[in-house]
Amino acid sequence: MSAKRDPVHAEPNVTEQDQIMREHAGSILRKWEEHQPVAPFEDVWDRYLSAAEASRRKQQIRNRWRAAAATFLVLILLGGAVLFSSPEVRAALSRFPFMKMLLADGGFEEQGLSKIEKEGLGVHLNTSVIDRNIRFTMDEVFYDGVQIVLNLNFESP
Amino acid sequence: MLGLQNISEEQARSIYNKHSPYVYGIALMLTRSSPMADDIMQETFLRAFQKFDQYDPSRPLRPWLCRIAVNLAKSAMRKQRWLFFQADPPDIGDEFLVEESMMKSESERELWESVNRLSAKRKEVIILHYYAELSLPEVAEALHIPEGTCKSWLHEALKQLRRSQTLRRHEVRCEEEMQ
Q1: What pLDDT does A2 receive?
Q2: Mind listing the pLDDT tens digit for each residue in A16-41?
Q3: Does the predicted model carry a pTM greater than 0.80?
Q4: Nearest residue to B137 via CA among B44, B40, B67, B57
């Protein structure tokens, strides 16, 4: 005796449904192909050109800021080098306790810089930034909760 | 110069003319709103032109466009749901008529209604696989889901569609018998 198949609750035939879906989609896709877009191409292209122009301007502004920052850094470093090499400036600056420590014979040596280097207490970064052929590298950083030591390298052609 | 070097106007025009009805259709099916579908279609091409350097020409273009359109449609629908909670529901106008005008016969409309009754996940898989003609790996990539999950959702969706169609036919037969 064969059981009567319940058309509502029987397990659906997925393969057959797959075929129905393909036919349905095929007929709709053919109608889509005839559809004309509401917005003409020129509208989209104009928006694309405006967006590209805005993006180009933003990039230019960003580049200017980078160049300004690099120039500022160069001036600071050059200025610092000039100031520290002059005996008069060194004498004047040594009135300040921090500068006195900095300018003392051996510089930071008394503060244990050689210890940091020998025992490898700093964190090696070797992070570089190049802008207009000027390379600025941060080699190493040390921080003990009180003082911070940065080992920087600056190269220009 | 950003973007401008990537695609020429003629190339962009050819892509737009060839694929805009397809992208519009996908967006319309996903959102069921013709103004939204139109916005998504334009935004899809704008993004595609801007990111054209990221497109791999050895692969078909439609799945790539479709992926952009799906992401935009999802984001637009999320935004609309949020607006719905915040204020009055948007005026849908004749949106449903536009989409249904593509389906002339009663059986086509019935099947489409069944597709729309599916959960969002299952409906997306059905639309992308059958109507957008993407392969299962492409659907999985577009929806950011594993291929196995995609297969499982498709199977469940087909089962549910089959069941609802069988049920509908059964109801029609009962109505005819009663008359």
Answers
A1: 44
A2: 888 888 888 888 777 777 766 678 89
A3: no
A4: B67
Q: Which residue range(s) make up the domain with A96?
A: 42-104
* B98 close to B153: Cβ distance less than 8 angstroms: no
Q: Is pLDDT at B91 greater than 60 in this prediction?
A: no
Is residue A152, in this structure, part of any structural domain at all? yes
- Ranges of beta strands (E only) in chain A are 123-131, 134-143, 148-155
The CATH number given to B104-179 is: 1.10.10.10
Give pLDDT tens digits for B10-24.
999 999 999 998 898
Q: Tell me if A25 is assigned to some domain.
A: no
**Is the CATH code 1.25.40.10 the one for domain B1-102?**
no
Q: Give A20's contacts in chain B (Cβ within 8 Å).
A: 111, 165
Q: From the list A21, A38, A51, which residue is nearest B50 (CB)? A: A51
A36 in a structural domain: no
* Alpha carbon distance B134, A62 (integer Å): 41
End-to-end CA distance of chain B: 73
Q: Both A86 and A118 in a single domain?
A: no
Query: In this predicted structure, which of A13-17, A46-50, A137-141 has the lowest mean pLDDT?
Result: A13-17
* Contact call for A47 and B42, based on CB within 8 A: yes
Amino acid in the structure at residue A56: R
Query: What span, in angstroms and rounded, lies between the C-alpha atoms of A29 and A27?
Result: 6
Q: Do A21 and B155 touch (CB under 8 A)?
A: no
Q: How many domains does chain A have?
A: 2
Burial status of residue A50 (CB atoms within 10 A of its CB: 0-12, 13-18, 19 or more): exposed
